[in-house]
Design a protein that fits this description.
With 247 residues, the protein is α/β, with parallel strands linked by helices. It folds into two domains: 5-31 and 159-245, Rossmann fold (3-Layer(aba) Sandwich), CATH 3.40.50.10090; 35-156, Rossmann fold. 38% of the residues lie in helices and 23% in strands. It contains eleven helices and eleven strands. Strands 3-8-7-4-5-6 form a six-stranded mixed β-sheet. The protein has a five-stranded parallel β-sheet with strand order 2-1-9-10-11, sandwiched between helices. Helix 4 links the parallel strand 5 (81-84) and strand 6. Helix 3 (61-71) runs parallel beside helix 4. The radius of gyration is 20 Å and the shape is elongated. 36% of the residues are buried.
Length: 247
């Protein structure tokens, strides 16, 4: 049986390695990049009075990393709880010695907030450390329950692929050789759809992490055939391989 060709809209990493080890041909196309915000003055000011907050929220490892690196110059210790969604963000923040609240079974902000008692948040003040493209789900979920301030610490920007790589992917899409495309974020979906003709996209089977990315892909006319039940690369790869092997 011919190996499925999978386009991963992300740099080559463990996810792609797992797919290759299962016999898939994997192409990587990195279309977005992240970088610390050019102006972190707002974060610096908040770090001077971080103990005014009852807790901090993180849903991104990039935000966690920027925060940890920046806070080294301002804060020697934190007295507040740090609420974390995502295993990579958890690893970064625990590694910095912070008091992390993490729910292993929670894969979305809704599941995370819902797994804790409302008294955990009621009448308190929190800081949500986020990226410029991050959804405001935490803020919206706690509206009327707690005060949530936000600070943006990193930016997500589209990147244009090398002409050789982009041209090769374009040809293989046009020839119908690529069966699956994998997305890890709504931003990746948007960048991908801007580059390639809608007709080519409709022939693809899309695999995604999370309902938010799934909705974005469907809104762009894509055929979403697999949604990872957990927001980790390992689970995503294992689930997709299982889906492919069913057919």
């Amino acid at each position: 049986m011919k190996s499925p060709v999978i386009l991963v809209v992300r740099a080559d990493d463990q996810f792609s390695t797992l797919l290759r080890s299962s016999g898939c041909e994997v192409l990587n196309l990195e279309l977005i990049s992240t970088a610390p915000s050019s102006d972190l003055t707002a974060l610096d000011e908040l770090l001077h009075r971080i103990d005014d907050y009852d807790g901090l929220f993180f849903t991104s490892p990039v935000a966690a990393n920027v925060f940890v690196e920046r806070s080294k110059a301002f804060v020697k210790s934190f007295l507040v709880k740090v609420y974390v969604l995502g295993r990579r963000a958890r690893t970064i923040l625990e590694g910095a010695g912070l008091d992390v609240v993490f729910v292993g079974d929670a894969n979305t902000a809704e599941e995370f907030i819902g797994s804790l008692e409302q008294t955990e948040f009621e009448g308190k003040r929190f800081l949500y450390v986020r990226g410029d493209k991050s959804l405001r789900t935490i803020t919206n979920l706690l509206a009327g329950i707690a005060v949530v301030d936000e600070v943006t610490v990193y930016e997500t920007k589209p990147t244009r692929p090398d002409n050789l790589i982009g041209g090769s992917v374009r040809k293989r899409l046009s020839d119908g050789e690529i069966e699956w495309v994998c997305f890890f974020s709504p931003s990746a979906v948007d960048s991908f759809c801007r580059l390639f003709p809608a007709g080519d996209l409709k022939r693809l089977k899309a695999a995604v992490i999370g309902e938010t990315t799934s909705r974005t892909a469907r809104d762009r006319g894509m055929n979403v055939e697999f949604i990872s039940v957990e927001a980790t690369a390992d689970c995503f790869a294992a689930g997709l391989i299982g889906q492919i092997n069913k057919h």
